[in-house]
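Per-residue structure
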Amino acid sequence: MLPCNIVVLSKFVKIIQIHMEIAGLLLAALVGISLGLIGSGGSILTVPILVYVMGINPVLATAYSLFIVGTTALIGGIQSAIQKKVDFKTVLIFGIPSIIAVYSTRLWILPLIPNELFTIGTFAVTKSIALMLLFAIVMILASISMIRPSKKSTDDDEHASMKYNYPMILLEGAVVGILTGLVGAGGGFLIIPALVLMARMPMKLAVGTSLFIIAAKSLIGFIGDLQGNQVIDWVLLIKFTASAAVGIFAGIYLSKKIAGEKLKTAFGWFVLIMAVYIIVKETILKN
């Protein structure tokens, strides 16, 4: 009787796993849709989906996120380049320090972080918990940026003159690179405001340029993981990425139909709710 119960339980668990993977792949399309619509938010969705829906370890999920978001952003970036909505000079200025920072963080800094950082009473703050809490903080900052109404300015003019604040753009690139390396966040919500405010870049041009920057630093950061001891599930990774790639084409199409400001605000509230959920899940509800 006992072996029979074990077989039934095993089949039930397998069915649950299959359904969770299907749900995860469907949600992966949201990653692409977000990137296609507003040029950011991909990694904000990717890591929680991988961790809470597909059961991936948080540290490994940040590595997977780099590949998924990087590949999807590259597809969107190429599409934007075809439409002449990418400034490659800015890609280099912002991208070089960002790429160096994310590669260094993934290859050298992240492995140095101990598995258990400290304890508060009986609660042990592990590396995985710390990364998820840091990610939640990033999500809150992202949500505030998206919920806050955009200021109307002449920067929306496609012919507005661009002005490069090189030191600030270089510094911003390095900071975003470190953030990307730690939590697997593409940083579009930081890149786009930086390009609009510091380079006086039109919004549509900033979105396309951001996609190329996200792609470059995310994929190079993932290369840093390949040189470590991470075991990569390539089948899962490719399926998730393919679903996200379909989503970005849908997002680019929908961007022509939906008011970007309204969508950005709604997405910001969604991200804020998810951030609160992660904080509660990793602290109060943690076993």
